[in-house]
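Duplicate of #3305? Posting structure anyway:
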């Protein structure tokens, strides 16, 4: 049997396999390219906030009831009206007065006018300066002393729900930013007025209620609306700021990749000390000054996490997750 064709086929297969292996070795050693862009450290204001949710509700919710059982004769206010202490809200006839007037009305108009003059209606007054947020009655309606006629609110506030892990950073007098889920484009400033002393368990998490007083009450504010709140716990002006992605961790140290002054020398890592951080920027407390230039990756690869063995800091590696 002639084995020569078989040997030739095996040689061709080995050579092809070796070439393929070499090709893959070359590809495996080839680094992905990354583009770098320069950013300049700037001076600005940065603040640290605690973000949470809450609800719009009255600070003092006062339910108004009638002192007598009877019939509602007149309603003098509407929902949304602002009323002063002592202002008339409604007029109510007692059960006896209503029955007497109904009987007189059937007999003689003069008799009805007489009893209306000598038997006065009962006046429902506002006990505080407030806004009418609920009107539960209509003229002619019969009410009892247990029925709610109106609900008054001295003013609307926002009750924020703060997790116990954040409550230690909240203090009375801190500023807050409020936006409503229903009207996200409307933002209102506010101030922390009160922090509850007792927690409330919600979804197995201890929550503290924090009362925030809005600086203004837009017309769209309604009791029960959901709100997003950011409470400013720290703020610093004239801070040296960099984009968050410009700061890296190398061998356990916080560093930035600093560009050379002449633009010709190799870039090098510079250790920095960071401070406050928001969603976009981080404060550089030490290691950089305003106007210094640093480099950051503009591609899908991050800066290398170590620079041992003399490797170039420009060789990109995939960001660790």
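Output from current build:
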């Amino acid at each position: 049997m002639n084995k020569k064709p078989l040997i030739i086929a095996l040689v061709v297969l080995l050579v092809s396999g070796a070439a393929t292996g070499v090709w893959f070795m070359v590809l495996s050693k080839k680094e992905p390219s990354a583009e770098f862009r320069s950013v300049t450290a700037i001076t600005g204001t940065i603040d640290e906030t605690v973000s949470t949710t809450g609800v719009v509700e009255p600070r003092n919710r006062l339910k108004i009831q009638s002192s007598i059982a009877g019939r509602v004769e007149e309603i003098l206010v509407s929902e949304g009206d602002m009323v002063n202490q002592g202002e008339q809200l409604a007029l109510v006839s007692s059960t006896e007065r209503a029955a007497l007037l109904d009987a007189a009305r059937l007999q003689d108009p003069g008799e009805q006018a007489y009893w209306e003059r000598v038997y006065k209606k009962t006046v429902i007054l506002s006990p505080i300066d407030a806004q009418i947020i609920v009107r539960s009655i209509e003229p002619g309606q019969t009410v009892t002393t247990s029925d709610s006629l109106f609900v008054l609110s001295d003013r609307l506030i926002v009750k924020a729900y703060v997790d116990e892990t954040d409550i230690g950073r909240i203090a009375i007098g801190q500023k807050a930013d409020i936006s409503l889920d229903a009207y996200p484009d409307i933002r209102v400033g506010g101030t922390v007025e009160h922090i509850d002393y007792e927690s409330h368990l919600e979804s197995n998490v201890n929550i503290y209620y924090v009362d925030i007083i809005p600086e203004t009450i837009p017309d769209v504010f309604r009791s029960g609306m959901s709100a997003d709140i950011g409470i400013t716990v720290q703020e610093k002006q004239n801070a040296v700021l960099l984009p968050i992605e410009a700061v890296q961790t190398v061998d356990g140290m916080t560093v930035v990749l600093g560009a050379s002054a002449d633009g010709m020398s190799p870039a090098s890592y510079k250790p920095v000390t960071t401070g406050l951080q928001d969603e976009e920027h981080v404060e550089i407390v030490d290691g950089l000054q305003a106007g210094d230039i640093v480099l950051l990756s503009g591609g899908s690869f991050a800066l290398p996490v170590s620079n041992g063995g003399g490797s170039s800091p420009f060789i990109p590696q995939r960001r660790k997750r």
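Confirmed duplicate; merging threads. The domain at 36-46+237-310 is CATH 2.40.420.20 (conserved putative lor/sdh protein from methanococcus maripaludis s2 fold). Residues 4-29 form the longest helix (26 residues).
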